[in-house]
Amino acid sequence: MIPLPLSANGSDLFFYHAILTSLGLIIPTLFAGAFSSLTGGHVRASDMRSLKSITSMISRSEDLDAILTAALEILIDHLGMNAGLFRLKIKQDDFPRLINRGFTPEVTAILESTGDSHLGPHYQLAAAVAGDISQWEDSLLSAALRQNGLSYYVNYPIRSGDHIFGSVALAASDPRPIDGDRQALLESIGELVAVALVNARLREQSNKLSEDLVALQELNKIISRGFNLEEIIQRIVVEGKRLAKTDHCHLFLLDESRQYMVVSASTQAEDHDIRAVKIHVSEGSIAAAALRERRAIALDVSKVKNAHNSWMKSLGWQAAIFAPLVTKEQAIGVLICSNIAQERSFSEEDIQRAETLAHQAAIALENARLFQVISRSQKEWETTFDAM
């Protein structure tokens, strides 16, 4: 199989998603040919119907759990197994997605904790394993399987190219070695599941990109149409919260002395403590560093020890991104996107999104400032003209 793209940027997401959707028309034929080749041309009609059923679901349905459940049931039924479980991760930082049929909660819990060394050598995501459980050395997994009357076990990795999404575990009450035809079916369904997972990842990225574009369009409307400074400031934090997907967004601008940054707008405005925050530009806080260095900085607030950053903890923040507001002439403040509900490790994509937001916000603020200057000059001219 050709490795499918696991990530993409911008319009590529829509391109790849369109390709995967259109592949639904030809994937059954491709897998039929590959499966026939793997089995030496001896293809069971029931196996082919099962493969076509799964490929049809992938091309028509966005319900990943339904696709995985159907694939698991086909594997269990066609391989003569008593139990099966998919343990998959669409993204590296996701919690495992479990689809289980027939395994007890005890076995499921053990299979879920694949990172633990006490499982023994017979459960490895990257390796295909098949064998008689009675021949295994003692481990939590082998003991739990035997206790539940299972004597034969199969583990097969689900992969796309070199990327492993997880594995499928299968078990039977009586030893039944998997022959070449059954191995080909297992491999083909594993590759189909990888297609479904890649499709789900691209769909998620595409949806996220669409949401980002909507938020940026709202900011562009502010830039092109709005000149009321107070309204612009408030809209920036509202749209910033939505775009950054954080609990709150805050706009800190330099005061007239340009020695301190003070809050101008915040979605956490009901908290009076934030109104009292003044950040000195020369102090050792992260916000001041972002302003001086003119780059976005992500911070795990829970690990902060610097006294200059203690005010963040008092506001209940767990993590935050600090993005400088920079115009053509100078830095004017910092946009802060913060989380209070839980700790969050911000990705490079999150940081870039905050930088984009801050750039757009700086343009909007500068436009409003220039409009105020022009309006003030016009009023002064009109006053002078009327007095003549």
What would you say this structure looks like, in words?
The protein has twelve helices and eleven strands. The chain has helices at 11-23, 27-38, 45-60, 64-79, 105-112, 140-147, 180-225, 229-244, 272-275, 286-293, 310-314, 348-387, and strands at residues 83-88, 97-101, 129-132, 152-160, 163-172, 248-254, 260-266, 278-280, 297-300, 319-326, 331-339. 49% of the residues lie in helices and 19% in strands. It is an alpha+beta fold. The radius of gyration is 29 Å and the shape is elongated. Residues 1-41 and 115-125 have low confidence and may be disordered. α2 (27-38) runs antiparallel to α3, α5 (105-112) runs antiparallel to α6 (140-147) and α8 (229-244) packs antiparallel against α12. The relative contact order is 0.09. The protein has a six-stranded antiparallel sheet, with helices on both faces. β4 and β5 form a beta hairpin. The longest helix has 46 residues, at 180-225. The protein folds into two domains: 11-204, Beta-Lactamase, CATH 3.30.450; 226-387, Beta-Lactamase (2-Layer Sandwich).
